[in-house]
Records
---
Amino acid sequence: MRAAKSAGTMVVTLVVSSFIVFAALYAAPGDPLTFLLGGPENRTPERIAAVTEQYHLNEPFLTRYWLWASGVLRGDLGASMQYHQPVAALVASRFPVTVFLALYSSILVVIIGIGLGIVAAVKRSSRTDRLIVGGTTLGASVPTFAVGLFLVTVFALWLRIFPAAGAGDGFIDRLWHLTLPAISLAIGAIAIVSRVTRQSMVEMFESDHVAAARGTGLSESLVVRRHVLRNSWGPIVTMVGLVVAGLLSGTVVIESVFGISGVGKLLVDAINTHDFPVVQAVVLFMVFTYMVIMTAVDLVLPLFDARLSRVRA
Amino acid sequence: MTESGFTPRLVLVATVAAAALALAGCSAAAPQTLTVDFATSLPPAVAPVDSVVWMLNGEPDSLDVDEAGGADMSTVLANVCERLFQIQPDLTSRPFLAESAEWTNDTTLVLTLVSGATFHDGSPITADDVAWSLERHMLDESWEADEFDNVLSVAVTGEQQVTVTFSQPDAVFLQAMAGNGGVILNKKVIEEAGDSFGGPGSPDACSGPYEVTEWNAGERLTLQRSASYWGESTGVGAEEIQFVWGDETAVVNSLKSDRADGVYFASPGAAIGVGNNPAITLGQGPATNAWSAIPTRDGAASDPVVRRALSLVINRTGIAAAAFGGLAQPSKAPIGSGAWGFEQETFESAYEDLTGSPATPSDADIEEARKLLADAGLDSLSLSLVIATDGGSTRTVIANAIADAAKKIGIEASIITFPPQQYGDFYDDESLRAEADLFVDEYYISKNDPVGFYKNGESSSWANFTGWEDPEFDTLVRLAQSTLDDGERAQYAVQLQERWNEEMIWIPLVATPSTVAIDSTLTGIPSSSAYLYYPWAADLGLVEKP
C-alpha cells in the first residue's frame, strides 16, 4: 500500500514537472528555428517552411506537449533536434560518466564530510575544530566552477598531476580523470555534511543520557560510538541524502568546466539550443533519480536511528 | 555548410567563468596582446606523425552533411569526404572529383568525373552516385539546399558525366561544390544504414584519405588513414586522429597541459588563453568571418548619414585589442579577406581604396563625422542610439566602443542586454529588432566569393533590415551572380563593396581570422578557414625528422 502510494506520488511529480519544464522552455526567449536552421545562408523560405513543418514549430503549445507526451507513453522519448539521434540513446551514452562522477563525489562527501564532522565534534572547541569549521565555511561559500578552475590551474596546469579535461577510459583512468571534477563537486557538500554531523553530535554530547553513560565508567571512544554517533545518524543520513541527490544537478556546472560530455553538459547545451526533447528527458531523469534517492533515505533511516526504530517497533 | 555564425553552444556557465577571468585579468594589468603569424598555411611538415589528439569546440551534431552543418562536423568531414571541387589552403578552389566542369551554355553545366576514384568500401564513384548525392543535397529540408536554389535538374548524361541544368546562370555554384554541398556520397552505404546514417556507430559513406573508425558518443571520434585511398599520398599526414571536445576553458587547458595536440578555435580571442607558450604554435589565416554593427529599420541608425558618421569615429583597433586580445583585425569591409577566393589582387587593391572606416579615428575623422551630420541638417543632440548586447564579453565590449563613438559626435547612446539564447533571433524577429537600433554579430559566408555576402543588400533580401532600396545595386547583384567570368565578376563585386560602404548598410568593425593552435613539434596544416573542407590531416606532420 505504502509502495503503491509513493509510486503514485512519483508519477504525479514526473507529469507535473515535465509540464512545467515544457512550459518554461516554450516561454523562454529564443526561437528554436534559429538554431535548427544553423546559419545565415541557410534561411531560405523553403528551408524555413520544411524545418517548421518537421518539428511542428507552428503547432499550439498544448498540441506540442501532447505530441511529446503521447510519444513518451508509447516508450518513445523522441529524437534530439540538435543531434538527430533518439533521445534515449543520447542520454544513455552520457549517462555512465555522470553517474560515475556523482557516485565518486558522493563517496567523498560521505567519507570526508562525516569524518571531518566527527573529528570536529569530538575535539569540539579545540584548534582542530576551529580549523575544520573555518575551512568548511570557506568551502561552502566558493562557487563550484571557481573551485573547478582553481583545481585545474594548480593540479593540472602547474603540477600536472591530474588531467585538465576529459573523462578517460576504463576504471582507473576514469577515476584519475574525474578526481578533480569530483572534488570540485563535493567541496560544498562536504562542508554541509560535516557541519550537520558536528552539530548533531555536539548536541548529543551535551545530552543527559551521554552524561549517564559516562557516569557508568564507559571509555570515551565507546561513548562516542554507542551513544553519541548512534543517536546522531538521523539528521546526518537525511542531509547526506539531500546533498547527494543535489550533486546530480551540480554536474551541470562542473561538466562544462572540465570538458566532460555527461548528462549535465547535455542539459546545458540542450537548453541553449531549445532542444526540448533532450531537456525533458534529462530533467525527468534528474527528478526521478532525486526521488529514488530520497525514498531510499526514508527506507534506510530507521536502520540507523535508534529512536525511530523503537517508535516503529 | 554554415559554421559558427550563431554560436549555438553559448554556455551560460562558460560565459560566467570567462567573464570572471576577464575581470580578474583586467584588474591585474593591461589586456595581454599576442602577435601571431598570418598566412594561409603553417610551414610544411617534413615527416608523418603517428597519432594526434585534436580538440573540437563541441561534439559534431551528426556526420551527415545534409542533416547538420557546424564547424565541428566540417572539421572532421574535411578529411573523410571529398567534393566535386576542392578548396585549397589559399582558399581558391580546383576541380577534384569532377575532373572538369564546363558551361555548355549559361544554364547548363557538364561535369566530367575523374576515373579511378573509389569509396571507402572499394566501390567506384559512378555518375549515378554523383547525381544521387546532388539530388539528396537539393531536398528542401537538407542543410545544403540553399546552394541549389537555381538548379532545375541533375542528370546522368554519360558513363563519367553528369549534367546540371539551371533556371538562371549561377556563378557561385562551382564554389559551392567545394563545400559540403559538393560532397559525393556512397548511395549503397547510406541506404543500408537507413535512419541511423550520420549518427555514432554508422559507417561513413565517403572517399577521402581518412575513414571514421570509431565514434563513441560523448567521448571521442577517431579517424584512421584509409588503407585503400584512391588518391595520391602527401608523404606526410597523421596515421590516426582522435577528436575530443570541450568548451573554451577545457580546450585551452587541454592544450596547455599537453593532453591535446591542436585545435582550430571557434573565436580568435580564445587563443589568448594559450598565451606566449613555447610548447604551442599559434597561427592565423584568412576567413570570411567579420563582425559588423547591423542597423534596424527605425531609429537613428536607419539613417545612412548617421551610420557613415558613426563608422568614421569607431575605434576598431580598440575593439580588436579589448574584445579579441589583438587577434582580430580592424576591418574596412563587412567580410574577411577569406572571401577573396579568386582575383585576389583585384580585391586586395579595392580593399586598400576603401574609406570611411578608419582603424583608429583621427581628429580629422571626428571633424568629418560632425560635418556629415551638420550638412545633413541633423542635430546630434536630438539623436539617440540603442545598442544590443547579449551580456557576453565580446558583444559588450563592442557595444561600449560604439556607444563611446556615438558620444564623440554628440549622439546619446545606451546599451540593452538580451539573453544569449535570443540574440540570433535578431535576424528573424522584426519585433525584437524594434527594441534596438544596432545589433552586433559575426557574419560569415561558406563560399569564398564576396557576392555571396553583398547580396544581403538587395532590396528583396531578408537581411536588408533598414529597407534600403536601390535598383542599381539590385542589378549589380544579379549581374555578379550570373557572370561566369571571374575577372568580370570581381569587378562587379568591387562595385558592390563600394556601394555597400557608401551606404554603410552594415557598419564593418573587425575581421576575425581563422586561428589555429598546435603542438610546436607539429606543422603543415592550413591556418586559413580551408580546414573546414580541405583534408588537412593529410598535411599534418612533424616539424623535424624524428
Note: The CA atoms of residues 60 and 134 of chain A lie 54 Å apart.
---
Amino acid sequence: MKRKIAVLLALAVFAVAGPALAQTANGSGNQLKVETKTTRLSGTAGQYVTMPAKITNASDKPVNDIVAYVTLVEVTKGQKAPVDLEDWSAHRAVTVGSLAPGRSSDASWRLRLIKGGDYVVYANAIERGSSRAAVGPEVPLTVTAHKNLNPGGVLPVALGVPVLVGAALFGPIFVRHRSLSE
Amino acid sequence: MSAPATVERGSFARDSLRIARKEVSESVYAVRGSMWAVLAALVLSLMSYLLLTDKELSLLDQSEMLYIITSLTVGLGVLVVGILAGDAVAGERERATLESLLLTPIGRGALVAGKVWAVIAAWFLIFAISAPYIFMVSAGTDLTAPALLYTFVLGTLCVAGFSALTVGISCLASSGRGVTLAALAIFIAMAAPTLLGTVLQKSWFGAIYNALSPFAQVRLSLDSAIVDNEGLLMQLPHLAALAAFVALAGAFAAIAARRVSLEGGG
C-alpha cells in the first residue's frame, strides 16, 4: 500500500512539475526575446493592419543572421487551422544582420486581412543555424467579414452587355443576309 | 525635296486608314469577325458575376476586383488582337488575295500599317465593352476614372506593340495558322509571370521576366494605380517600358513590311 501511495505521489508530482520543467527547458536555450507593443489587432476584410515586434538579444554574446517572421493561426470556432501567409501578404521574412548583447531591432509586418474570423498572430525570430525560434506573445486578431455581394447590380450588366453586343454586331449581318436573300 | 515628302507622308496615312476601314468593315460584317466581341463580353460577364456574387470571391477588396477586371480586359484585348493579326497578311496569302492587294497603288508600308490599325480597332471595341463592367465593379469608389484611364492607355500601348509584332510575323510567314499559334505562344510567354508565386516574382528571375514582359508591365502598373493608389509618377517606368515595346515592334513590322512577298517565309 505504501509502495502504491509512493508511486501515485511520484506521478502526481511529475504531472504538476512536468509542464513547468518543459517550459523552462524550452526557453532556456533562447538567446533572442520577441516582444510586441500591440495587445490586440482588428479590422475589416480587405484592410491592412500592422503587426510590430521588437527583437532583443537577451544573451551576453552577439547573435548573427536573425530571421524574423510571423505565424498566423485561425481560431474561429470550428475552423482552427494555420493560414496561408502568402494570401495575407504576411510571408515576408525580416532579416537582421547582427545584434550585439542587450541590443534590439524593430520589425513590422503589414497584414492584409482576407477572411472574417478570429485569429492569433505571433512574431517569431530565429538565429540562422539554430533549431529553436523565439516566439513573441500571442496577439489576438479579429477580422470582420466584408462581403461585396451585389447580385442585383451585376445581373443586368452581366446579361445585358453580351446581348447588346450580340444584337449590335449580328443584327446588321442578319439584316444584310435577309435583304440579299430577298 | 520637302514637298514630295509631305505628299508621301499624307498619302501613307490616307492609304493606311483606307486599308484599316476596309478591314474593320469586313470584320464587322462577318460572323466570325464579330464572334470574339460577344465572347469577350461573356468572359467579362462571368468574371464580374463571380466576383460580386460568390461568397469567397466577394471577400476580395473592391480595388482588387477592379484590378482583376481591368487586367482581364487587357488580356482579352491582347488575345483577340493576336488571333486577328495572325491572319492579317499570311491569311491573305493563303486565300490568294495578297497578289491583288499588292497590285493596288498602295505602298507596302501603308498596307501593313492599315492592317495594324484595323487590329488595334478591335481593342478599342473590347475596351468599350469592358467599360460597363469597370463602372459596375468600381461603383461607390473613386477608382472608376483611374481604372478606365489606365486600362485604356496601358492596354492601347500593349495591344499596339503586340499587334505590330504579330502583323510583322504575319508578313514573313506563309501560314496564317502558324502565325496565330506563334502569337498565342508569345501571349502565353508574356502572361506567364502572372503564374509565378509572389516569392518567385520577387526573385531576380521574376524581376527580369516582369521587366521583359509587356503584359506584366501592364499588370504591375494597374496593380500600382488601382490597388495601391499610386500616382502617375510611379507608372512612368511601366509606360516607358511599354513605349519601348511599341517602338521595337513597330520597327520590326516596318522591316517585315518591306519583305512582304507572295510566297512568304521572309
Note: Confidence is low (pLDDT under 50) at residues 13-29 of chain A.
---
Amino acid sequence: MTEKKTPSERTRHIHGWIGVVCRLVLGLVLLIAGAIKLPDLDASVISVTRFQLGLPEYWMVQALGYGLPIIEVALGLLLLVGLFTRLSALLGGLMMLAYAIGIASVWIRGIALDCGCFGSGSSLDRINPWVYGWDIVRDIALFAMGMWLFLRPRTPFSLDERLRGADLDDLDTFDAATDTENL
Amino acid sequence: MTDKPDTTDADDVIDDAQAEADAAQADADAELAAAEDDLADATTDAEVASATARKKAAVAKGAKPASTKTRSKQAKKEALKSSGTPESRRAKLQAQREEMKRKERQRRMRMYVLAGVIIALIIGLIGFVIWQANQPVKIEGAPKNATAKADGINPYPGKAKAGAPVVVVYADFQCPGCGSLENAVGKELFALAEEGEIQLEMRTMIMLDGQIPGRHSVRAAVAAACGDYVDMYPDVYRAIFSYQPPQEGMGYTDATLTDEVADLTKMSPEKKQTYVSCYNEAKTKSFVENVDKMGRKSMFDAIGENRTPVILVNGKNLDLASIDLQATDKKAMLKDAIGKVK
C-alpha cells in the first residue's frame, strides 16, 4: 500500500538520516583514532603525560593511555553498527568534549603536544595556533554529533532498530486508555 | 519484527491519521480493498478483528483513515464494539498484550546482559593490558655497573663523595635535544662523576622507537650498555651521540654502533670483540627495556611528564635553560647549576 508521508513522518525520516551520518562520522573517527594507537599503546601513555593533567599516580596515566584507545575502538564499532547508539554516542561525544578541553588547556598553558621529538627547551615556538584551533573545532563538532545521537538515537540501518521491541511505556498507556474507554 | 504489535507509535499515528482524514475520505474505496486484503492475511485474532472493523467502517462511513500502521486504538475499539461478546474479546486481547509485555521484558533483559558483557569485556581488556605492562621484566645480562634495581647505569660506582648530589640523566639516543645536551655538557657531566662531585646515574630511554621505525633508540641503548661490559660506558655513550644523524629519524646503522664506535673509542681488539658480540647478541636488551620502563614511571613521579632529555638532581628537575652554553668553565658552571637545584 502506498502511503503519503505526513510532515512529522518526513521530519523523522530526515532526522534518521542525519543520525546515520553522525553515527558513521563519529564512529569512524573514534575507530580510526583508537586503531592507530593500538599497535603502540606505550606511546599512547606518553601522549597522555604530555597533557600534564596533574594525575597523582602513574597507574592513572596508564589507565588513560591504555584504556582510551580500547574504548575508542569499542565505541566506534558500536556506533558504526548502531548498537546501544544512545549510550555509545553520549560516551563518544563526551570523550570528544574532554579532548577539546584538554587541547584548549594545553594551548593556554603553552605546552607543545606533538613536536615529534620530545625535545626540550622552549616549546612555545612550536605551538601552531591553527593546529590547536582546528583540533578544538573538530572535536566540538564531533561532540555535537554525539549529542544529536544522544537526543535522537533512532536511526535506520542500525542493530538497535533490528533488535527493537515494543515500547513498554506506550503499551501501558495504550492499555489504560482502551480499558477506561471500554469499561 | 514481524510479530511486532502495531501499538508502538499509536498516539503519534492517530494524530497523523487525524490530519489525513480528508484525504482518506476520498480513498475510501481503496481502503475497503486494503482492509479486505489485510483480512485475508490476518493471522491473529486482533488482526482479524481490526481488519473486519476497518472493512465495516470503510463501507458504513465511507471514510476511515487506516494505513497499515493505524489499526490501533480506534480500530481496536471498533473491534471491541462490533464483537458479539466484548468481555471475552477483551480478555483475549488483554492476554495477548500481557504475553507481549512479558516477551518485551525478556528482550530488554537480554539487551542489558549484552551491554554488561560488552562493558565487562572492555574493562577486562584494559585491566589485562595494564597488568601486563606492570609485570617485571625478566632481566638477563645486566651490565656490572647497573643500579641495584637495574633501572640505570652508574658509570663511576663508589666514586661519589659523601653528600654528593644524585644526578639522574634521562636521554634517548635519537632525540636531538639529548644530542645537544650531550654536546654541550656531556664531557663535564662524566668528569664531575669521575671526580666524585656528583653521583651520576644514566637512564637511556627508548620512547622514540614508538614513533620512528627502525628501533634505533633501543639498539643504540643496547650498544651503550654493552660499553659497560668492557668498562668503557662513558666513552661509548659519548661516541654513539657523536654519530647522531643531523636529522631526527635517520637513526644508526649496526656498523656505526659496532665498528665505528669501537674504533672511535679506541677499544683494544679483545674489548672490541666482547663489545661487538654483546651488541650482536643483544645481551643487554632486557636490561635496556627495564631501564626504559622504570624510567617512564620514575620520570613521571618526578616531573609529571615523559620527555627527554631530563636531568634530575636529588629527584628534582634541573631546568636545562639554566645551563649556560657560553660559559668558559663549563664544569664549574654545570656544578653550580646542579648545586642550585632545590
Note: Confidence is low (pLDDT under 50) at residues 115-125 of chain A.
